[in-house]
Amino acid sequence: MRKGVLMLLSALFLSLLPPGLSDVVDTFSEKNCLTFFLNGKTPSIPGILVNGNVQDQKRYKPICQNYTKVYRFATLYDTANKIPVFSAYKFTGFVKGRPSQAWMIEPELEQQALDADYNVGNRNDMHRGHLYPCSHANCYTEQRATFTLTNAVPQVSSFNIGSWKKVEGSIRLEMKKSCLQKRKQIEAYVVTGAIPGKKIMNNEVNIPSVMWTAYCCYNSETKNWISKAHWGLNKPERKGIKQTGKTLEELENMLNRSYGDGVKVFPDCPRTVMARKRNWSETNEIEDFY
User: What is the full DSSP assignment across 208-264?
Assistant: First the structure.
């Protein structure tokens, strides 16, 4: 019964989707998708993605996320757990607000989470948590492009709207202030991922145990590389919890414990340099964003 209902829902969603929503590819080198990675080099994750090559092509699917005939960001999707391994994008500034956008699925991907998988009774303790957050998008169309379930994981609501929201707001402001190119143009590379957990939502979708994110950029004014990383446990949390920034090396050491030695989020980014907190107020920008 459930399988039949899901097939019907899938067909319905597909009929409503705009054409050309995404391209599922063999490697990120297709469709100019490497532009979303620093120096065109993808992360390396043992057993999953090494030197740009997917290790198990039946399970892990590179996606060049296409919306309104423009490639917006890249995702590596785990069809077994039905969550993304990571999403990668280029940060060039942002617009405030949140679009009225229904969650979408990818027409070319058969094994993926559906919106119905998140609707378990009246529960409100689990959100569809963005990896590429719409609050980091540089225009409203780009914001809408982030609302695909291949860019989302089940995220505990108090964590999603608590410390993780603060992380997204904090690094958004840091990148805006520090990742400056010539003529004050903003450019930073971001990779955000999720470590699969032991719990399954609705017998379909893995609930990640950890969320992680990192950015790297070169400041052409100071002639310095800048990077920072964060991670947090995807579990209920009380108000006031703060996430402390880490170095890229610290993040990779943490990820090594889950994936095995050899994780490189940004192969060409300095591993131990971390952006320093500036004397600017971030409270209003974070709280007043939406």
Answer: -SEEEEEEEEEETTTTEEEEEEEEEE-S---TT--PPPB-HHHHHHHHHHHH-S--B
Distance CA 207, CA 199 (A): 6
Distance of CA 171 to the CA centre of its chain: 13
Q: Give the type of residue at 233.
A: L
How far, in Å, CA of 290 to CA of 17, rounded? 25
Displacement of CA 195 from its chain's centroid (Å): 12
Q: Which two tokens stand for residue 164?
A: 């993780």
DSSP state of 49: E
* pLDDT tens track for 131-151: 999 999 999 999 999 999 999
Are 54 and 99 contacting, i.e. CB atoms less than 8 angstroms apart?
A: no
Kindly report the three-state secondary structure assignment for every residue of the chain.
CHHHHHHHHHHHHHHHCCCCCEEECCCCCHHHHHHHCHHHCCCEECCCEECCEECCCCCEEEEEEEECCEEEEEEEEECCCCEEEEEEEEECCCCCCCCCCCCECCCCCCCCCCHHHHCCCCCCCEEEEECCCHHHCCCHHHHHHCCEHHHEEEEEHHHHCCHHHHHHHHHHHHHHHHCECHHHCECEEEEEEEECCCEEECCCEEECCEEEEEEEEEECCCCEEEEEEEEEECCCCCCCCCCCCECHHHHHHHHHHHHCCCCECCCCCCCCCCCCCCCCCCHHHHHCCC
Q: Is 97 left (phi over 0), alpha (psi -120 to 50) or beta?
A: left
Q: pLDDT tens-digit profile of 3-23?
A: 444 444 544 544 444 434 689
Whether this model's pTM surpasses 0.85: yes
